[in-house]
Amino acid sequence: MSWGKAFIELNKLDHDRNSFDCGEDELNTFIKTQAAKHMQAGISRTMVLPSAQPLLNKKHAICAFYSVAPSSISREALPANLAKKLPKYPVPVFLLAQLAVHKEFHGSGLGKVSLVRALKYLWDVNHHMRAYAIVVDCLTDSAQSFYSKYGFEVLCEHNGRTRMFMPMKTVAQLFENN
Ligand SMILES: CC(C)(COP(=O)(O)OP(=O)(O)OC[C@H]1O[C@@H](n2cnc3c(N)ncnc32)[C@H](O)[C@@H]1OP(=O)(O)O)[C@@H](O)C(=O)NCCC(=O)NCCS
C-alpha cells in the first residue's frame, strides 16, 4: 500500500474506515465510529490521506488522518509572560483533536508529513479567523514526545491528558515566506 498525494475530507463512501489501525484503540474507534458523526454535527472536521490504490472493496484505505476543531483555553493556563499580553477572557485556539498514522507506515515519515499538513491547514484557516495557538491533548507519553520533537510545549493537564500548545506566531515562522 502507498499513500496518495493530498489530505481530503473524510467520506464514508470512499474511505475504508474499518481497516484503519494506528495501534491505539481510542483513535481507531474515533475514525471508525465518531469522526463522520462529529462532522455531520458540525463540531470537527476530519481530513484523511487515502491510499493511492483502492482496496478490493473499491474504497481507499486511510493511511493517516487528522481532526481539527475550534476551541478556547483559559488565559490563566498560559505561561505568565504570554498571559499578561492577553485580555482577561478565554483565548481562542485551534484544537488538533486527533492525528494518527496507519501502523503499516509508522516510522516512514508520515507522522511528520501529517503534522505539517495539519499545521498548514490551520495556518490557512488562521488567515480568515484568528486563533492564538494550536493545542493538542496527548493520549500517551509517546504522543507527547512526538509533539515535543516538533516544538509543542506543555500547557496543563486536561481531562487526564497532557495538553500541549504551539503559539500561532511559531506556526507562522514555518510557513511565512515559504
Ligand atoms: C505518533 C505517530 C503519529 C508518529 O507517526 P510516524 O509515521 O511513526 O512518525 P514519523 O515516521 O513521521 O517520525 C517523524 C519523526 O518523529 C519521531 N517520532 C515518531 N514517533 C515518535 C514518538 N512517539 N516519540 C518521539 N519521536 C517520535 C521519529 O523518530 C522521526 O524523527 P526523525 O525525523 O528525527 O527521524 C504514530 O506513531 C501514531 O499514529 N501513533 C498512534 C496514534 C497517536 O499516538 N497519535 C498522537 C496523537 S494523540
Could you give a short description of this structure?
The protein is built from 5 helices and 8 strands, in the order E-E-H-E-E-H-E-H-E-H-E-E-H. The protein has 178 residues and is an alpha+beta fold.
CATH topology: Aminopeptidase
Q: Can you list the ligands bound to this structure?
A: coenzyme A
* Radius of gyration, whole Å: 17 Å
The first-level CATH class name: Alpha Beta
Fraction in beta strands: 25-35%
Number of strands: 8
Distance between the termini: 31 Å
**CATH homology superfamily name:** Gcn5-related N-acetyltransferase (GNAT)
Give the overall shape, derived from the CA principal axes: elongated
Sheet having the most strands: 8 strands, mixed
Overall residue-averaged pLDDT value: 96
Number of domain modules: 1
Helix and strand element order: EEHEEHEHEHEEH
CATH architecture call: 3-Layer(aba) Sandwich
Task: Please tally the helical runs, counting DSSP H or I stretches of 4 or more residues.
Answer: 5
Model regions low in confidence, pLDDT < 50 over at least 5 residues: none
Binned, the helix content reads: 25-40%
Structural class assignment: alpha+beta
